[in-house]
Specification:
The protein is mainly β and 456 residues long. Helix content is 7%, strand content 38%.
């Protein structure tokens, strides 16, 4: 029996040794910087004793030290120290090509943010789509990064999945298939004059490119996954009960709010986009609003929307299409979609309660995730993210993954707000047990895609 145990122990040790050897890590910081090149601004980099030190300069844009080699699937680890007065990041799967903004570096950046915002470990799309995974969606990661000391960062980029850890705490779980390979880059951020001469340092940087999928860490199930797959669900979303409300091609599951079928005009489905046509700005006067065939009570809804100049639209929920069979839009709670700068509705209502992200005519939006930061709108003619969560009467509006509205639809305060709004004549407004989801036709060109929901 003793010999058998010894044999089993030897076999286990050999297996562990084999696995250790199989992890063929490559050091990215060698004796010189010959395998790197500088792009962008005039920040400086120097290598000494295995540490790369970047130094900020005044009056210069972001500066990057990037690998000459490109990487696709990998696990990247490094230690980083940064002066708390500045922020920085590490680019992955990034590019610099002359045809894109005259060679500007763009692509995924793993943020290092020592400010009180504390978005370290979040994923930003540099010079492209901006924040993809703000740490507002994973608040427990706010404390992962420690100021004034070296921090250990791990990045797993495998297929469309990008996950990050700082000091062993998972920060982000992103799914996005826009870019599958590119260089790795160290950032020296542009700064105000008073922050010139500040330092950021990297050491112990290594990368694993051979079979990285065999060496991934276990995912923390409490860390939300944010998926930007277009009109598709990730495997995790399927496991968590998400389903597509629009299949990206047909009108299945939708009908006109005042029809028993989908409108024959006014709405288009092309190139994976569901769009309402420009017809002059009148409310529900062309194709009309569209609603889901199904009704929902407790749910989490996500979609992407694109506004054109001067556009007005909305996403409504707890909609009862029987309440208004005349002119105008169907009745329900509304996540306002609006070009705040150009549409006159932004200046109507009370204290901004008709602006982008508002609970229309009831509650004005503000950044509740990061007070003082302001609501995060990425702009016109680009895709923005909308999220609505409704559970047991508690409702939240999220714009680009930062919360802008929260309320209790069964509360006395909500009833008081309704009593002084355009909805005062609709008995029980917003308190019905369930209702349809609606996309509004307000006569302006607006696009939607990746519409998905899960019931809670």
């Amino acid at each position: 029996m003793k010999n058998k145990r010894q044999t089993a122990l030897v076999a286990l040790l050999l297996l562990l040794a084999h696995l250790a050897c199989a992890q063929e890590w490559q050091n990215l910081i060698g004796d010189n910087l010959n395998n790197w090149k500088k792009l962008g601004g005039n920040g400086t980099y120097e290598l000494q004793n295995g540490i790369i030190t970047g130094t900020t300069q005044k009056n210069t844009p972001n500066t990057f030290l990037v690998t000459r080699q490109e990487y696709s699937d990998f696990i990247l680890e490094f230690d980083i120290w940064v002066d708390p007065a500045i922020n920085t990041g590490v680019q992955i799967r990034s590019h610099s090509i002359e045809s894109y903004q005259n060679g500007r570096v763009h692509g995924y950046q793993v943020e290092i943010d020592p400010s009180p915002r504390a978005f370290s470990g979040g994923i930003y799309d540099e010079a492209r789509r901006l924040w993809m995974y703000p740490i507002s969606r994973n608040p427990k990661a706010h404390n992962a990064f420690k100021n004034g000391v070296w921090n250990r960062v791990r990045i797993e980029a495998i297929g469309p999945s990008i996950k990050t850890w700082i000091n062993g705490i998972q920060c982000a779980d992103l799914v996005d298939d826009m870019t599958s390979s590119g260089f790795i880059g160290l950032q020296v951020h542009s700064v105000a004059e008073q922050d010139a001469g500040k330092h950021v340092k990297w050491k112990n940087m290594r990368i694993l490119t051979k079979n990285p999928q065999n060496y991934t860490r276990e995912t923390d199930p409490s860390v939300p996954q944010l998926s930007y797959l277009i009109n598709q669900l990730s495997d995790r979303e399927k496991r968590e009960g998400w389903r597509l409300l629009w299949d990206g091609k047909t009108s299945a599951g939708w009908r006109g709010a005042k029809l028993d079928h989908f409108p024959t005009s006014g709405w288009n489905m092309e190139n994976g986009e569901l769009s309402v046509a420009e017809t002059g700005g009148a409310e529900s006067a062309a194709g009309g609003d569209i609603i889901t065939v199904d009704q929902f009570a407790n749910f989490e809804l996500e979609l992407q929307f694109m506004l054109t100049e001067g556009a007005n639209s909305g996403v409504k929920y707890f909609v009862d299409p029987q309440l208004n069979q005349g002119t105008g839009s169907a009745i329900g709670c509304e996540f306002q979609l609006l070009d705040d700068q150009r549409h006159p509705d932004a200046k109507m209502g009370v204290n901004g309660n008709r602006t982008l992200g508002a609970l229309y005519d009831l509650i004005a939006p503000e950044n509740l995730s990061i007070p003082g930061r302001g609501k995060q709108f990425k702009g016109l003619n680009v895709w923005n993210n909308l999220r609505i969560v409704s559970k047991n009467g508690k409702v939240e509006h999220w714009l680009n993954n930062e919360k802008v509205v929260e309320y209790d639809r069964f509360s006395q305060m909500f009833r008081a707000l309704v009593a002084y709004s355009k909805y005062k004549d609709w008995k029980g407004f917003g308190q019905w047990p369930k209702g349809h989801i609606l996309l509004q036709d307000h006569g302006n060109a607006v696009k939607f895609r990746s519409i998905k929901i899960r019931e809670l």
